[in-house]
Amino acid sequence: MLDDLVPTIAANRTTATGPDHGFYVTFYDEVNNRYVNNSQNFTQAYQSFILPWWRQVLWTVLFAGMVVVATVGNLVVIWIVMANKRMRSVTNYFLVNLSVADAMVSTLNVTFNFTYMLNSDWPFGHFYCKFCQFIAVLSISASVFTLLAISVDRYVAIMSPLRPRLGKRATLGITAAIWVWSSILSTPNLVYFTTDMDYLPDGTIRRVCFPEWPDGITTMSQLEYWYNVAFMVLTYFLPIMSMTYTYSRVGVELWGSQSIGECTQRQLDNVKSKRRVVKMMIVVVVIFAVCWLPFHVYFLVTSYYPDVVNYTHIQEIYLGIYWLAMSNSMYNPIIYCWMNSKFRRGFKQFFWCCGAFGGGGLDRRRAFGTDRMDRSVRSLSPSRKNGTSLFKTTKFIKNPPGSPHLLHANKIRK
């Protein structure tokens, strides 16, 4: 599905020069020894998709900026959680897993696919053709399944607060299952992607990376079509529907229900904390849905209207769609920094330590824990409702109840 843009039909075709001094591609199925669509004069105009240099520079800047922000941001998120014990919660462990998947797709896939789409040539070899496409599906699947796991964990924690929470071992087990299932989904890319040399009529040679399915060439294979449909359903529509349900129920529980009786300050703080986490995750899911929707719509359109790929500006349209989908990996760290104070302090500490802002850095306890003054104020807040303070009940009482002086006085009175 990631290679629909560039014509990558390999050895099973012949080329011929057209009357307008361009050249055409005649598709031939070598497996069944026949021309496609049972028509021997079926030809399709070939487009080289080479953009002017200034537009290539513009797209390169956009993709390079996205890769840098996504890679650095996700690595900082991993560092914040793993280097600070106070940040090691179940939700944050899942966020680390999400950051690992996003960092993988930005470093191991986006740059190479973008180069291929921009130049219509694959210079990275046969092995990396397979590995790059394997990493693409692996990381995308791991990201969406991690988001789904977070939504289920939040749902159970809020809707069934008396149930025991996930432990470290269970969290690691779920994470391992996510990667195993994602690897299974991605295995066809590792098996069927291959490379070939494309000899063009003008004498140039183009190296192509494309999937060669058992039942035919790419875009003509029913196996490829149903695989792409299954991938789209399993990694987009079903997870989005599930997360919409879970977060809707959680939202009604946190914002719609009214508690009976008077709530303590600790209970109110607990509800506010849960609301902040749920808000952050809802934003993450919405951004994911928006970023990937055009990509899946493009796949559906090109599946039923293949001639769309011959549109004059289809390369830049697809580059925009692909950039939007891949840019999802750089938004999550920005959302964490924006909506979570501990992650925000962690980012500040990281950049201060790197010297980006100068200065001597932040103290780790101040960056990731609750300040002592904040804790003391919270401990005093319940008693301030009636105008008293804990200091008044402890500091100015000379002889607390049960002290030896009071016991002696009681004996005298008796």
UniProtKB/TrEMBL annotation:
Topology class, membrane: Multi-pass membrane protein
CDD domains: 7tmA_TACR
Keywords assigned: Cell membrane, G-protein coupled receptor, Membrane, Receptor, Transducer, Transmembrane, Transmembrane helix
InterPro entries with a match to the protein in the record: GPCR_Rhodpsn, GPCR_Rhodpsn_7TM, Neurokn_rcpt
GO cellular component: plasma membrane
Chief location category: membrane
Subcellular location: Cell membrane
One Pfam family from the record: 7tm_1
Origin: domain of life: Eukaryota
Location of the G-protein coupled receptors family 1 profile domain: 73-336
TM spans (from-to): 57-81, 93-114, 134-152, 172-193, 225-247, 280-301, 321-339
GO molecular function, one term: tachykinin receptor activity
Family: Belongs to the G-protein coupled receptor 1 family.
UniProt protein name: G-protein coupled receptors family 1 profile domain-containing protein
